Amino acid sequence: MINRIIMIIMALGAVAGGIDRILGNRFGYGKKFEEGFQYLGPTALSMVGIICLAPLVSGTLGRLIIPVYRFLGVDPAMFGSLLAIDMGGYQLSMELAENPLIGRYAGIVAASVFGCTIVFTIPVGMGLIEEGDRPVFAKGIMLGLAAMPAALITGGAVCGLGIGEILHQNLPVLVLALLLGIGLFRIPDGMVKGFEVFAVLIRTVITAGLVLAAVTYMTGFVVIPGMAPIEEAMAVVSSIGVVLLGSLPVTEFLQRRLKRPCTALGARMGLDSISVLGLLVSIVSPIPALVMMKDMNTFGKLVNVAYMVSSASMLAAHLGFTVSTEPDMLPALLVSKLAGCAAAIALVVITSNTKKRS
Length: 358
Known about the structure:
Elements: H1 2-22, H2 29-38, H3 40-72, H4 85-96, H5 100-128, H6 134-159, H7 163-169, H8 171-186, H9 188-219, H10 230-269, H11 273-281, H12 286-292, H13 298-311, H14 317-325, H15 330-357
């Protein structure tokens, strides 16, 4: 019922954006409407290759991962949460899942927070921000990961999982998050280099998958048997683009309406206007917020980065992907991300106040 209401709102956003485009983009919603389709290219480049390779990856990794995860009593689907929801995390989770519910939880909820942070926010962020901001970026990521259990628990509860089962299933994720946080805090330069290598590896695999799938489509020659057809991957991308036609105008509307109260609230917290704007735009994409970091005050940078761990692409790519693949999981996605955002901001405020008192 909730996801149906959300989809109706997205449809109204598409109508408003389309009408504004016809009228010459008088109110700015037509531009956002156009951006929905403009995301198709970048989305396809980041998704199609890994979606096509997912059956092969799951088969290969399954022989290595499944015994280890079974020994821990964890569903192998949770391994998929190491990739972003829209970069193969969902497909890998569902391919490896022994329990379909855990597969959906890992591929939608956990992958949209933890996986997105590992394969997108950290490597992209380290490449976009100024070198002097890397320590505060590392600290913000660490605080965001520390707040991540709030997202994982609330999202799992909405899915119908018990708290004990959620914590048990997320044991590898939480341990890796802890190690990641310690590494970012202790050896940020080494972690930066490691993530740069990891980002290149992911990009290489995604591109190779896209090339192989394209060759099969154009020639009929199956280079590697077992890959998913490129048409299936493109169907997922196209459905995301359709949802973005409505979600981006809706997000623009919300940003305009919430800017004044959020600015007032931010002023009380010690956030400058650029920092507040960063919080508003990262729910569409974290990239603009990362670019704006150089103009934020130190506290604003810390809040934005911690918040970004859960907020990234909440009302854009992740919403569109969830609607196109698992619409019933949309409430879990939104609730988990909102809980993670709130917990991250609270944790930054608490630790900052504690430091001031000390």
